[in-house]
Amino acid sequence: MSFFRADNLVKHFGGLAAVNGVSFEVNEGEIFGLIGPNGSGKTTLFNLISGFYKPTSGEVYFMDRRIDGLKPHKINRLGLVRTFQVVRPLKRMTVEDNVIAAAFAQSGSLREARRIALETIEFCGLGRCKDMLAKSLTIGDRKRLEITRAMATGPKLILLDETFAGLNPSEQDEAIGLIRKIKASGVTIIIVEHIMKVIMTISDRVHAINFGQTLTEGTPSQVVSNPGVVEAYLGEAYHA
Ligand SMILES: Nc1ncnc2c1ncn2[C@@H]1O[C@H](COP(=O)(O)OP(=O)(O)OP(=O)(O)O)[C@@H](O)[C@H]1O
Ligand SMILES: [Mg+2]
User: Fold this and answer.
1) For the chain, which terminus, N or C, has the lower number of CB atoms within 10 Å?
2) Ligand 1 centre and the CA of 40: distance in Å?
3) pLDDT band at 89; cut points 50, 70, 90
4) Phi, psi at 27, each rounded to 5°
């Protein structure tokens, strides 16, 4: 019995193997970090897991059910949801309506969606701007809205794609707080993140990839001291 398992995933785009044989398991309740340099295949993995792409080969299991090839809304209904690296709120709608729309897609009842939305907005710390238009939010709050929309679907597993990009250090600390709170509420998390300090602070385990293939997996301290990771990832980050 495994909570989540990706088995030998491959995704080709024409001649490019963006993901080339990646396998990992995620345990219920953990924060699982996924790292790798730009273009290494992290977002493609998220697209494969959440049903936005069909794998060229390989399998995905969620709560012992095979989910690769299912449509995103079907997968979402099973309790697996992802956020987008480029956030896409409904800009001319309020924060509250954005979250209601996300909740409605799951619950199918407007009353229920409204209740869930308000609860989730409070939980995620957006209560102070629930009546604001999404387009007028700061980048930090836009990222928070993206997480809130995902949480309003009632997930068991949430995939976070670069939730911290563009945040200043105090916004980063707030986002770490929110992710810990999500974990404490019983939701399992897979997080893609470039900021090493963040990923190392919050992850229980880390899986590192490069050129669509696994470099290593382990505890944060094991992974940062892996020579392949230092070269592929830290080297790049330090040079930048
Ligand atoms: N829809 C697509 N069509 C063609 N090539 C794609 C597509 N999506 C991704 N790629 C390519 O696949 C590779 C992996 O891209 P991906 O977006 O998964 O990387 P990433 O690790 O998320 O990078 P970043 O850290 O910059 O977000 C890249 O070479 C990218 O150009
Ligand atoms: Mg990406």
Assistant:
1) N
2) 7
3) low
4) -90, 145
Distance 172 CA to ligand 1 centre (A): 25
Cα 106 to Cα 109: distance, rounded to the nearest angstrom: 9
- Which class for 64: exposed (0-12), middle (13-18), buried (19 or more C-beta within 10 A)? exposed
**Is 67 within the bounds of a domain?**
yes
Name the residue with the closest Cα to ligand 1, atom 18: 41
- Looking at the domain assignment, is residue 181 inside a domain? yes
Average pLDDT over residues 23-51: 96
Question: Residues 19, 210: contact at Cβ < 8 Å?
Answer: no
Domain CATH number, residue 73: 3.40.50.300
213 lines ligand 1 (CB under 6 A): no
Sheet containing strand 16-26, strands side by side: 16-26, 4-13, 57-62, 65-66
In ligand 1, which atom is closest to the CA atom of 194?
25
Which atom from ligand 1 is nearest to the alpha carbon of 11? 12
Give the distance (Å) from ligand 1 centre to CA of residue 44.
Answer: 6
CA of 19 to the centre of ligand 1 (A): 9
Is the pLDDT at 61 greater than 70, yes or no?
yes
Ligand nearest to the CA of 20: 1
Q: List beta partners, residue 94.
A: 133
Q: How far is CA 41 from the centre of its chain?
A: 14
Indicate yes or no: pTM above 0.90: yes
Quickly state the pLDDT bin for 107 (edges 50, 70, 90): confident
The CB of 216 under 6 Å from ligand 1? The reply is: no
Name the amino acid, one letter, at 73: H
User: Which tokens sit at 171?
Assistant: 């916004």
